[in-house]
Design brief:
Two copies of one chain form a homodimer. Chain A is of the alpha/beta class and 490 residues long. The first copy, chain A, is built from 18 helices and 19 strands. Chain A has a seven-stranded mixed β-sheet, with helices on one face. The first copy, chain A, has a seven-stranded mixed β-sheet with strand order 9-8-11-10-12-13-14, with helices on both faces. Chain A has a five-stranded parallel β-sheet with strand order 16-15-17-18-19, sandwiched between helices. At the A-B interface, helix 2, helix 5, helix 8, helix 10 and helix 11 of A face helix 2, helix 5, helix 8, helix 10 and helix 11 of B.
């Protein structure tokens, strides 16, 4: 284990937390953190520190951390800007070596004096500060949601480091709603008083719980060290960065946001690429990539087999694959013959493979992928298909047209359940086929929310589902990273 | 009203429909059309025609359309390929002049003889054929969903013409789930035996119910006529096209899909642009644009005011605005002073305007947009904000940690309802402010589904909500079209 990981891991696995800044007015920032720690199931001890109140929201409080009779691992500071240095002083006295400073109002508004004071006290007592002007950390595996946003994501292998507090915690909404993104750790580094993105990248590189890393990247305080660490890390774990604030207005915004001067895109992006970092300008694309790369193996080549239940979507996906430097190869005559022998006469088998209106689902989920993955003619699969019948069924069942009554009887709960079981089984088989062949599969669909039980099921078992226009780009990023790794190996 | 509109409108407003191809096996294609007509609330008469069965799914059937004692407006043919010409012959005898031919197996598989026969019979009897190899039409305003997919969209001002049947009907899922896209008409033209995309574009141009047009575009059979009609149409109504099948594999796919040879992208796209057509390669982006342009006015210039509740998202949106040729202008000192006087000291007011953690929602929804729209310094607004409290509330209410019990009491139904009412009112005001100033507003958020009552509310009242990375691109398309119109006017 690296030194950095050991130095910083208390931020992620604290056994006890002291919080500064709670109040009896429920919707205060520090209370949001408190609520989320409690409802998220945090197993450690929580101490509320307040100079005047003796009870807050039912908790007994302490006037000072020094009064707490037991040791404290981590301080969470959400108190007013001017008192932060003296609170840190107190933490030092108590022997707390890790402090999350949520409080803003330092370098981002030009208060450099305040920032220096912070650093001074921290150095004196050997305190690692996360922030200031950050939102905290999330570690689903240890039920730690120390941010103002509820909805902790499922545990998984992704580490995210963010200069932006909003991007660090607002993404919980989109994960809850649309993505099955398994998270190991999210950390919001804010204005980086004495720990920064480089430190956490170094720690994540050595963290055995993390297999892919995402960065929301504003200004780089130590560009050289960053590139050095990134280069080393990307040889083992994919890193994808969404640089923010590197255009003209964006740089202005970043300056007033975290007080750093960002590097212009034209300089930054080539440097990132050289360090093996994938670059995207879309927050969602970053999350989509991380989902795919932690769920599926990397492709060994650029050749995509596109399998669909409709002509238009297959054509669109094929176009987009080519746009993103992938290939959609014409299949060999013999493979086409094999496909033709099982599919209806209306099907297309050249690639894209469009099974058209074929109710033999076994073809779509089992026979076709078996033929493709064993052929050696493709390196990955992108699927498109309407695959959950629940919405269709429910629509009929809820219709109040009496003419449909006799038909409705056929769509009872049992049938819906039976279809669900069959579909779940088919997907399990498809997943096994891909896994055995070590060929990545991305699924696409036009409805994505996890409220659909089938989508929840397949995503929870490692098959990502994206919009049709998203999958080709994500596969292209996976192939880009695979090439980087291949070059290193050769 | 144009001749074309008169010629073709029976496809959209038939008073009676004869269906060929139903069966007592529920999940047959023609039955899906039947079910959707019935459950969608179609008010006209439906006659099932079958050579042998005398009852299908409870309906009395007719051996031939000629036996139906009343006049029939439209035939829907989902019967086997080889019998289609003789069924058309029968339609001719009955005096039916409009036939939707869902049946496939003509030019897309090289059956040119079949196609010619189809055209011959149609010419002989003066029948307009939609298809073959199409999925039908949707007209929410007249409760006509004549496609295999349920979930008809809300009525509205958008017309969509698609070479791809899948894109024409699968989009119903994404509309139902994610988009409040008001539809006037969707038509799937398939292999275009004797009516084509040019005809329907001409009809839509004159259709008073349609104010914006989307095209899923495969091969163009009459490119010159298409460009001519498009040029005329785009002077009044925005047209956005998602060309499909114009790369190498895509062209191969398109050929086996609708039997047409598509024009390579390098030739097609400049021609489309010259005709004032906006081009996208993403199906979702096309729908997003149509939603925005039918809900909001066009911007009069490229200057965007970005308003957020977080630094990172504002920076990202600003970066993307510049990437897509929009401006995020530095606001004047006097406007900055005005903004500073109402916002907290942590806020940024240069543009992006980040209100940071300001619980005075009145600033975000009322005061800031009033100052911005009246300033003359911006031409449009892009908002980012977590604005529905329902998820937060529910998360607390559903927590089983007993320590939270006293706090939970404060989150009762009444409070949730009160907050909802307040938020709804704030949004109504924001909408009014934008509308009075004739300045387009796009909202962005990381959770989008209409299951959220607030998102459903604002979208149903004309405020589109997109992902943060989507809105800048959509605003850019709106500005692109606005410039095209400005050039024509000058």
């Amino acid at each position: 284990m690296s030194e950095k990981y050991e130095e910083l891991k208390t931020f992620f696995y604290p056994k006890s937390i002291a919080i500064y800044g709670n109040s009896n007015i429920p919707f205060k920032f520090a209370n949001m953190h408190l609520f989320n720690l409690l409802s998220g199931g945090y197993k450690g001890k929580i101490y509320l520190i307040h100079p005047r109140e003796s009870k807050i929201l039912g908790f007994d409080t302490y006037k000072s951390a020094v009064d707490v009779p037991e040791p404290i691992d981590l301080a969470l500071i959400v108190a007013p800007t001017r008192v932060v240095p003296q609170l840190l002083e107190e933490c030092g006295k108590k022997g707390i070596h890790h402090a999350i400073c949520v409080t803003a109002g330092f370098s981002e508004i030009g208060n450099l004096e305040g920032r220096e004071k912070l650093q001074e006290v921290a150095t004196k007592h050997g305190i690692y500060i996360l922030g200031p002007n950050c939102i905290g950390v999330i570690v689903p595996g240890s039920d730690l949601n120390c941010t103002p946003v509820p909805l902790p994501p499922p545990p998984g292998k992704v580490g995210i480091i963010s200069h932006s507090g909003s991007w660090a915690c607002h993404i919980l909404f989109t994960i809850e709603e649309n993505l099955r993104l398994g998270i190991s750790k999210i950390v919001s580094v804010g204005n980086e008083a004495n720990t920064d993105m480089v430190d956490f990248l170094e720690a994540f590189a050595e963290d055995p719980e993390i297999s892919a890393i995402g960065l929301y990247l504003e200004g780089l305080r130590r560009p050289k060290e960053f590139i050095k660490v990134a280069k080393r890390t990307s040889q083992q774990k994919p890193i994808i960065a969404a640089p923010i604030g590197h255009g003209e207005a964006g740089m202005r915004a970043a300056l007033s946001h975290t007080g750093t001067i960002s590097t212009p895109t034209a300089v930054l992006n080539p440097a990132l690429k050289q360090a093996g970092i994938l670059v995207t300008d879309s927050p969602t694309e970053m999350l989509n990539f991380l989902q795919a790369v932690t769920m599926q193996p990397l492709p060994k080549g650029p050749r995509v087999g596109v399998v669909t239940v409709g002509g238009g979507p297959g054509t669109t996906i094929a176009d987009l694959c080519e746009k993103h430097n992938l290939e959609v190869p014409l299949l060999s005559e013999s493979l086409q013959d094999k496909l033709n022998s099982i599919l209806p006469f209306t099907a297309s088998v050249k690639n894209p493979i469009d099974i058209t209106f074929d109710m033999t689902w076994d073809n779509f989920y089992v026979k076709v992928p078996k033929l493709l993955t064993r052929s050696g003619e493709v390196d990955s699969l992108i699927y498109y298909g309407i695959f959950s019948m629940e919405k269709w069924f429910n629509y009929f069942v809820e219709s109040d047209n009496p003419i449909l009554d006799p038909i409705k009887k056929q769509f009872n709960e049992d049938m819906i359940e039976a279809t669900r079981v069959i579909m779940f089984d088919l997907f399990k088989t498809l997943l096994r086929i891909g896994r055995r062949a070590k060929i990545p599969i991305l699924f696409t669909n036009l409805f994505l929310t996890r409220s659909d039980s089938l989508i929840e099921f397949v995503q929870s078992r490692g098959l990502p589902v994206f919009l049709p226009e998203v999958a080709p780009r994500i596969m292209s990023l996976m192939w880009q990273y695979a090439q980087y790794r291949q070059k290193l190996d050769s």
